[in-house]
Design brief:
50% of the residues lie in helices and 7% in strands. By secondary structure, the protein is α/β, with parallel strands linked by helices. The strands form 2 sheets. Strands 5-4-6-7-8 form a 5-stranded parallel beta sheet, sandwiched between helices. The N terminus is likely disordered.
């Protein structure tokens, strides 16, 4: 037999059954397979076309925490005569709108940053962009001023950069950038998204731009959490919903923060590169930009996580713990002896964040304020879970301002200068990083002053103090009585998170000024009864603290806050 489809008589293998197929036959097979795939996809394609025709399932209508990483999803979309913030960025970015056509003689400012710009733990109505808008309108009512709040909760510089590039297409007269707190938070929370290859990012972003995918995500989001797969569980930040658990609040999120010098170096380098790119984009577009150096709560915020230095052997670690425990006990009756034990522990390991905070607190109570400030700063910088801007990041921002010839507004220095002994605490920060309402007002005033310095606001445009106070009072009154209480609920997640990590005792004041500052914080959050309790405790411990309390009360009146029902008389 010589049939090519059988085994030859001499035992040699015959050619495969398809060996004799012509090239044309192979092409027809490939075309058939491609056609079969297209026929299978045709219903989905028609459904996608139909959804677009009916304008259903728009990707910009689906909120999502990763929106800032998707280059296909804009921050703003046109709705008739105005641009509005897309829902895909909600609730992480405040809802804003502005006219497509800028008014004749109008001045448009875009403010970018994280939750400080957003206004956490309150809302944008008391964030510095709003106070700046009021400041500019009061200083020069002949012009139309609009300050657009583009603050994103937990947004780091990496996600802000594309938002700035988009805003440059909307006729801005000024860009304000206040970022630096969230660099390490975002790098851990969104590491998988940030590390995507260019091809994978394009494929995923393109998929998320489909109406079918958007509707599927919306349906999954409506499914009870327990029934959802892990990758679609709610990620909403507790700043907006205190009942939702964040990745940081989970054991795996907290545990992912470890001492890692190389990681720190890479995050700082990325921050430097990103901010430089943002400045360069603005300069290329001939749009002025102001940088803002943000500050932190040093006095009343212990570090979130502490670890011993790398390579510490068990025996010296045991000696460290003995000295630390002796110091803890001695703090109750002999501050000098407590400091001695703390310093003995520091001689073994001075990189432990909580130890540095304890030393700072002890020096503060011993009235050695300059030394205390240095240790408070070191406690912040050694925090294994750095949710406050660390010194290398702040220094990077300062270098960028100098080298790229960009004005820098030092909000950190401003609020520190207004704090007793130059050490900010609850007197100017509501929690670990977010300024009080008065703090936001002063930042706005500093920005307006820099705009005068830069020629963007006339020197003759000055807002009389009495008119400023009247505007402040009316604006705050319009917010209603629950506004501040809502802020208290939003900030509650941090306290619960810190308590779970056994840091509750570190947040309890241990002297009269500490209770006074706690009273101010409770006033800021609408808790008059709690404030009265804290002030009473402060006066019980040291009646001389009454002057500090009265000065704080006067400051709050100057902010336009209604007079409190708290009684501040000496005992």
């Amino acid at each position: 037999m010589n049939d090519r489809n059988t085994i030859s008589e001499n035992g040699a293998d015959a050619r495969p059954l398809t060996a004799g197929r012509s090239p044309a036959g192979g092409s027809r097979l490939r075309l058939f397979r491609l056609g079969a795939v297209l026929v299978g996809l045709l219903p989905l394609l028609l459904l996608e076309i139909g959804l677009r025709g009916l304008d259903l399932g728009r990707p910009t209508d689906q909120p999502g925490p990763s929106a800032g990483f998707n280059q296909t999803l804009p921050l703003f979309e046109r709705s008739g005569p105005v641009f509005r913030t897309t829902r895909t960025h909600a609730p992480f970015v405040a809802s804003q709108e502005f006219p497509v056509e800028k008014p004749r003689g109008g001045f448009r400012v875009f403010c970018f940053g994280g939750s400080t710009v957003y206004g956490h733990p309150y809302l944008g109505a008391t964030a510095f962009p709003k106070w700046l808008e009021l400041e500019l309108a009061g200083s020069d009512p002949t012009r139309s001023w609009q300050v657009i709040n583009c603050g994103g909760v937990s947004y780091a510089s990496y996600r802000i950069a594309p938002m700035v590039r988009e805003a440059l297409q909307h006729q801005p007269d000024l860009i304000i950038l206040a970022t630096g707190h969230n660099e390490f938070l975002e790098d851990r929370t969104y590491h998988a998204l940030k590390s995507r290859s260019a091809v994978r990012a394009w494929l995923e972003d393109t998929a998320y731009s489909l109406r079918l995918v958007t509707l599927a995500r919306h349906w999954l989001a409506r499914t009870p959490t327990a029934a959802r797969p892990p990758d679609v569980a709610s990620d909403h930040d507790p700043a907006l919903n205190p009942n939702v658990t964040t990745r940081l609040d989970s054991a795996s999120g907290y545990a992912s923060y470890r001492r890692d010098a190389a990681w720190h170096k890479n995050v700082i380098a990325q921050y430097d590169d990103t901010v430089r790119a943002i400045v360069a984009d603005c300069q290329a577009a001939h749009v002025p930009i102001l940088l803002v150096r943000l500050g932190t709560n040093l006095r009343d915020c212990p570090p979130f996580k502490s670890e011993h230095r790398a390579g510490l052997a068990p025996e010296p670690e045991a000696d460290w713990q003995t000295a630390f425990d002796l110091a803890t006990g001695a703090e109750k009756f002999d501050l000098t002896r407590a400091l001695q034990f703390y310093l003995e522990a520091a001689a073994i390991d001075r990189e432990h964040a909580l130890l540095n905070y304890r030393i700072a607190r002890t020096l503060d109570r011993l009235d050695r304020k300059t030394e205390a400030l240095a240790y408070f700063e070191k406690a912040k910088d050694e925090d294994i879970c750095p949710l406050r801007i660390i010194s290398p990041v702040a220094q990077s921002l300062t270098r960028i301002a100098v080298e790229m010839k960009v004005p820098l507004v030092d909000a950190a220095g401003l609020l520190a200068a207004k704090s007793p002994d130059g050490i900010p605490g609850y007197d100017w920060y509501v929690d670990h990083v977010h300024p009080t309402i008065g703090g936001h007002q002063w930042i706005a005033r500093a920005l307006a002053a820099q705009m005068r310095e830069s020629g963007l606001l006339a020197w003759s445009a000055v807002w009389p103090e009495d008119k400023r106070l009247g505007t402040y009072s009316r604006h705050l009154e319009e917010l209603g009585p629950t506004y501040f209480a809502d802020g208290a609920r939003r900030v509650g997640w941090l306290e619960k998170w810190a308590r779970r990590q056994r840091l509750a005792e570190e947040t309890i004041p241990n002297d009269a000024p500490g209770y006074a500052r706690l009273g101010f914080r409770r006033l800021d959050l609408g808790d008059d009864a709690g404030a009265q309790e804290a002030f009473d405790e402060a006066l019980e411990r040291d009646p001389a603290v009454v002057q500090l309390i009265r000065d704080g009360a006067k400051q709050r009146l100057s902010e336009g806050r209604p007079e409190s029902t708290v009684t501040l008389g000496a005992k």
